[in-house]
Amino acid sequence: MAEATRLWEVFIRPRNGLSHRHVGSLHAADEVLALQAARDVYTRRGEGTSIWVIPSDAITASDPDHAAEMFDPTADKIYRHPTFYDIPEDVGHM
Amino acid sequence: MSDAIVTALLELADDHLVLGHRLSEWCGHAPMLEEDLALPSMGLDLIGAARVLYTRAGEIEGKGRGEDDFAYLRDERAYRNCLLVERPNGDFAQTMLRQLYFAAFMEPYWKAALGSSDAVVQGLAAKALKEVAYHIRHSAEWVIRLGDGTAESAARMAEAVVELHGYTDELFLSSEAAQAAEAAGILPGRAALRTAWEAALKPVFAEAQLDWPEKVWPQSGGRKGEHGEALGHMLAEMQVIARAHPGAVW
Q1: What sign results for the dihedral spanned by CA atoms B143, B148, B150, B156?
Q2: A28 and B41: CB-CB below 8 Å?
Q3: What pLDDT sits at residue A90?
Q4: Residues 126 through 165 of chain B touching chain A, CB cutoff 8 Å
């Protein structure tokens, strides 16, 4: 049966104020059943206050083969990290 | 008087335990993992309600019987559940339709029970209302998808209606015990809930392309302990461990 049904990615927001986090995937025939299945599979122990389901094939993912050109060029740009700035004491805790 | 109240609470508790156990039978056998979790999850809601009701019945009875005594040490003839909930799971269409029939009845029932004179019943009603709302939503979505699905699923859904609809009439019948509990303000009346039940189900049937059966041969007897063959087999499996090892704890 699983072959005939669409794959969905599930995102749960654990508490108000936090963002939705990817928790896993599941099979369901459509978005209504996907949401119900997500509730039954991923919020059994009170994990969530909100659920998103997204068709897996709607996600465009980066190609691992392109990792070198995508991510390596940032490796030598340490000046982008905020650790080089002097924060005036008056600013206090940032 | 209190005997009747105990019996009425047991009727309600038995409905929940038996249907809850039926749902648990899907565990490990559901057509997909997602439903393998969803069905026993609904079953646990029902068994949770049964536990509260058995415990309350035991308190009122005052003979020291508790939830396990009622669940595991009564024979088939002492069970007072309606026939609908003991029907075998059949295929997925039958399981989902049975669930929808029962949940659509229990929602207005629990709503009315919010005004119960018994604090335990009142508290349970508030909790169960949320659970049963989800049971309706889940089972109705499946009934719609199967009824309005492929030729095979539509035929099975229509067959499920033929198989089960005759058992729904018993939901609206009140035994003498239930009437006493109603008079005492502890449990709601049943007959008055038919309008709400039909109003909830008919739109689902329409969307599922299912005909609402106008002519059925109502089956009843569960409240008198007259059950189908299926319940005995179910209880045998459910009770065997408790009876083989009396008083065992883990």
Answers
A1: positive
A2: no
A3: 87
A4: 134, 137-138, 141-142, 145
